[in-house]
Each structure stands twice: as structure tokens, then as C-alpha cells.
Amino acid sequence: KRATGRSLWSVLRGVARPSLVIASSVLLLAASGCGEESGVADGATVTAYVAAPLCAEAKRELEREGARAGEVRVRVYCLEATGDAGGLDLATVGENARMASEDSTAVGYLEAPGRAVRFGLPILETAGIAVVVDDSGSAAMARLLDAIAEADPGSLRESVSDALE
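^ thats the sequence. predicted structure below, dont judge the formating
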């Protein structure tokens, strides 16, 4: 029994019509962007994830360069320490790598030589994030900034990875 006297079809048509208008509008807006170059726009901000031992030097190098690589702004995210001379905290290594891999702005991961690289590398490679291994945070950041400045903005993450291989 219908309490309102309206058929199910008329109710559905009333709901579907506004939904159809909204869906059509979204598709038209999306289609109007077709053919435009995608990628990182001038002035966009990307992130460099930096291992704790390298972070202070990497920040200073980035400041010297005006926090930019070409037309792209670069910010540093200092990672949690993964251990001390006595051991390595694999959970933190994995957490750091996963954090970077889940960030769409991540273009580089700076790490000191050591065992942490071996465990974090598979996660970062799967995400296409360039890994720079160096004893010097300054040198690692300089290499990353050069790669970003020379990279194709249409596929920045991929271009930076290719440049640093």
C-alpha cells in the first residue's frame, strides 16, 4: 500500500532529475579541462621528507635556496628518528616511508646511509618517490633541488626519480 498516492517511479524520477543535472554539470566541467596540461603548476608546493640526522642541514640548504627549486616551492618534513647506534626501529622506518608514500606532494626522501634505507626503499620505490642517500643533509637537499628544478612539471615525481637514478 502506498500512503502518499504517488508511484515509486514518480518519486524516483523526482530524485533522479536533480541528480542527473548535477552529474551532467560535473561531467561538463571535467570535460572542459580536457586537453590542458596536467602536473605541477608554477608556485605549487612539494615536500621533501628528510631523515632526522639530515634534517637540520637540509633545512639550512633549502633556506639558502629560498625554499624553491625553479618555480616550485619546496618544504621539508623532518621524520622521526629510526633508532640510535644500538639498533633500528623497523616500525618507525616503515611508518616514515608510508607517510611519504601517502603524501601526493612528496617528491623526495633524504636518508643517511645505513640499514634504514634497505627497509624503507621498497615502499618509496613503489610510490615512485626519489630517494637520496647521503651523509650530508645539505648535499642531499642540493641534489634534490637540482632534480626538481630540471624536472618536467607534467610528471614531477617521476622526473625527479629519473633524474636522481
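The two ends are 70 Å apart (CA to CA).
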